[in-house]
Amino acid sequence: MILLLGPTGSGKTVQGQMLADRHGWVWISAGNLLREVNDPAINQMMLKGIMIPHDTINKLVFERIAKSKTASEERKFILDGYPREAEQAATLTKFEFDRTGREPIDIVIDLRITKEEIAKRLSLRGRAEDSPKVIADRLKLHDKQTKEIKDYYSALNVPIVTIDGVGTVGEVHDRIEKVLEDRQVLGAF
Asked: Which residues in 117-147 are b (16+ Cβ under 10 Å) and which e?
């Protein structure tokens, strides 16, 4: 399992989809799962930049993992935007260890871009939850939470790699592929 971290607008979704397409893995986006539910209360929380309750997002992610598993094949997963907090990371680790019997996370990739680049990218995206205030609040919270997640996985000796997310989609993807190859993560699948 690969975890993709990064602030909103960092390119996690595009990179996760590309990795899934290229390698036949399953891409799971927490944001997409929440939008698919189309629950008015969840939509309002997302518009205001409020964190979704752990139980809600955990349930959605774990259901998608279970749904993606077939009897004949253990599926490989790329998680985009989940976990967001150390508590979710611990819950994911327990869920996956209970399911597979091994340490589930192969690598954590943290895409980094500047605040200026984030603003530029999000202005093109045009989602309702991309207002300047919500973005600023989410970035502040993201930095705190990312540190907690990195600390949690670092204590478990999971490789954590920060990748420059600025450049063309292809350039960023090549950086990710090189890290996965160098760290022998591709062979782990």
From this structure: bbeebbeeeeeebbeeebbeebbebbeebbe
pLDDT, tens digit (0-9, with 9 covering 90-100), for 55-105 = 999 999 999 988 886 544 566 899 999 998 899 999 999 988 887 777 789
Q: Name the nearest CA neighbour of 158 among 100, 91, 89, 69.
A: 89
- Global pTM reads 0.87
DSSP character for 71? S
Backbone angles phi, psi at 27, to 5 degrees: -100, 130
Fill in the amino acid letter for 183.
R
Best CATH choice for the domain 2-188 from the list 2.60.40.1120, 3.40.1550.10, 3.40.50.300, 1.20.120.790: 3.40.50.300
Q: How far is CA 53 from CA 11, 50, 60, 87, in A?
A: 24, 9, 11, 11
